[in-house]
Amino acid sequence: MSTRTRIVTALITCLTALPAWAQNGIDQRINDAIRPASDWVAGIVFSTFPLFGVDVPFVLVWLVVAATFFTFYFKFINVRAFGHGFKLVRGDYNDPKAAGEVTHFQALATALSGTVGLGNIAGVAVAVSIGGPGATFWMIVCGLLGMSSKFTECTLGVKYRNEYEDGTVSGGPMYYLSKGLGERGFPKLGKVLAVLFAIACIGGSFGGGNMFQANQSFSQLVSMTGGDTGWLADKGWLYGIVVAILVGLVIIGGIKGIARVTSKIVPLMAVTYVTAGLIIIFMNLSAVPAAFGAIITGAFSPEGVAGGVVGVLFQGFKRAAFSNEAGIGSAAIAHSAVQTSRPVTEGFVALYEPFIDTVVVCTITALVIIITGSLDPNVSGVQLTSNAFESAISWFPWVLTVAVVLFAFSTMISWSYYGLKCWTYLFGETRATDVTYKILFLVFVVIGSSMQLGAVIDFSDAMIFAMAFPNILGLYFLLPVVKRELNEYWADLQAGRLQKFE
Predict the structure, then answer these.
(1) Would you say domain 10-494 falls under CATH 1.20.1740.10?
(2) How far is CA 495 from CA 36, 122, 345, 483, in A?
(3) Which of 58, 111, 293, 341 is 20 to 30 Å from 335 at the Cα level?
(4) Which residues pair with 162 in a beta bridge?
């Protein structure tokens, strides 16, 4: 029996055994076992301080302050490089001889598939239901600022990546933290931050990037097929196995396989969701001016929902930061695989990630909810968005369901790559470590679909945002490196020294 056959046999055995484990109450035992650690980590990561009567998580301030500082430090790079970034995305400067595994467009699609997801559907609904229409304004502002964070971390991801003789690459915060801070004279700090980031990313990949996606997409599918009394209601394990097989078929091909799939799925799901939203907006075109009026006035109204201006601002910033993950560092892992010899080019491409995720997709979700009059204090999350779609056309929730499933699937395959790169950073880049991680990831797909693992998901969400602490701290140290790369490239661009490729 070959090694590959033994691996597949072992995986099938594990997957088919999971439903029986679930029925024996293993999910509750796992919850009970991990709850103390979950509460402890979440308590640290999401620790709050009072600001004008609103409890604001420190991690949110950490992310937003950094994004604002980077925007000013690079003289509004999010605006002045926007046009050139589009030329890079469409392939004007793709160098086929440069190191890397994927094109600029494929790298962007892979990173987008990890961020455009349930946060754009459920998260926005939460922000608007709590913070009112004004939260949308601050969500857009946070998305625009987050573009500068993505520019910074993705430039460094390419700058300090490892390039191997077989043409593969490995990059991301764990590499620019260890190597970059070593160059700056802080090798020990860099190694500690890199390890902390890798551990947090692995935890996040199994939970928020995997189990949560499988769980929520299954819940949406159940709600559309008869609810708790429908045929699918108690078959989360079956859904999980099917999704695990599909995910496995993609991730076994590495970043090239992931990039090929995401470069097709991301445009499809984005166009599907955005088109559905635009149809509803055009059907209610007369209500759009009033909706924008409510967004602007609500953003600055002292009588705003959930604590006035600060409360509305907080809700908008929170959902935008949690959706586009600017400053978290995850996207830099995908972008570092790009085929380029100029690191800053991928920083320009990365500008589009928060813009598409937050400024475009999240705003459309918010507008649909507002103009259809679907705001209801008793309804939130995916259900609120679904109600808004259904109020326009009865069968539109099925469009939303397709979008949710595609979003979840693409998020899982992208986060599998993030977690894998952090796993191999800690345990070595060998075939054995590669296969071990992928098997574990696929097992967690089924666990997320068939079990109620609240503590595990809470823990993993905290781990995802824990990634921001070592990542942003390292970014401050490495800003001069990014500025040097930017200035050199910008001078070449303005002097016409850059070569275009057909």
Answers:
(1) yes
(2) 59, 46, 16, 18
(3) 58
(4) 170
